[in-house]
Amino acid sequence: MTDLAQNRDPAGPLRPAPPVSLDAALMSAPSPADPFDAREPAALRRRRAKIFAHRGASGLFPEHTRAAYRRAIEEGADGLEIDLHLTADGEPVCFHDATVDRTSNGTGSVAELSLAHMRTLDFTSWKTPRLPGDYGGRHQQLMTLADVLELMIDAGRDLDLAVELKHPSPYGDRLENKALRTLLRFGWDPETSVIPAGEFGQHAVTVSFMSFYPGSLVYLADMVAPDKLCALLSSVTEAHVQKRLEKMPLAMAVRPVVAAVMRGTLRDSEALVWNGRAGIAGPGLAYVKDHRAEVKAWVARGSRLRVWTVDDSQDAGLLLELGVQEITTNYPARMLQAVTPAGRG
Which sequence ranges form a coiled-coil region, renumbered to this chain (predicted)? Predict the structure, then answer.
């Protein structure tokens, strides 16, 4: 047992919440809260949802690069969304895939490569052959969690950071522990989940934690308040099952087991939201369209909704009608315009 989780719940698998009548939940719930704190600047309160840049401004620049993060901040995104893996030498690095093959000129698993080796790879040419000079050189684009925190602290305004812990990880809960230790090194307050920013601490970086793996959120709950925990949700389709099976031996034989495990994980994640152990529900756009009643009930019960990945203004309009308070997008400037009433930007 680690020093960051002395009170970790040793209980077994999560138990789904008992069935809840959606009509009863909607009738008994308090009115949904305004998506913005009254203390927020007026310009921000005029917007109808917060905008998180998905892997940075990844529609324009290579995902998870310094260029993508800087562009998102410049465009006015309310927050950044990042994915974390651990390198072979234990550094939390911002990267989506388990391997570097898709988005670099290298090959191999992130977990088996050192940070120093990853720094030598080219993570931009696959998407953007030429980067603006003030966004850093080609070998300055790989970002660690510490790099992102430095960038956000120096931004000169309040920002949110949504950290997704990528599982399964060969390092287990070391991923969470390393992330927490990095945050603590930057002055993160576990009670508020805030890192002071600005020369006189007049700004803040507010951190929330996300995962598709419910065990990650249960583990973090010993240090992190429920309103800073986000259960990520995605409908389990045949296509999703097939993708999970791609590199598995005897794929056809284990298909029923894999599908059952995936659906069980989804139920456990939904239970975290229903039970209030995760104050933020993080469904994908397709999940929202398939589960509108549940989404309305969660909003009415006081949960926040952070929906991914939304790049179309019509989809943004649907989410606003449902009461969704936070939207994750590859195109922050586009979505900022979509959620801001005309003439009130």
Answer: none
> CB-based burial of residue 332 (10 Å sphere; 0-12 exposed, 13-18 middle, 19+ buried)?
buried
Domain ranges of the chain: 49-338
Q: Which of 148, 169, 141, 134 is nearest to 80 (CA)?
A: 148
Contact yes or no for 154/147 (Cβ under 8 A): no
HSE of 239, CA atoms in CB hemisphere, 13 A: 2
- Its CATH architecture, for the domain 49-338, is Alpha-Beta Barrel (3.20)
For 288-297, how does the pLDDT look when each residue is reduced to its tens digit (9 = 90+)? 999 999 999 9
Nearest to 94 by CA among 168, 30, 164, 26: 164
Residue owning tokens 């943004």: 316
Residues 234-261: pLDDT tens digits? Answer: 998 777 767 776 766 756 667 787 788 8
pTM (2 d.p.): 0.86
Positions annotated as catalytic residues are 54, 96
How many alpha carbons lie under 13 Å from residue 155 in its C-beta half-sphere? 29
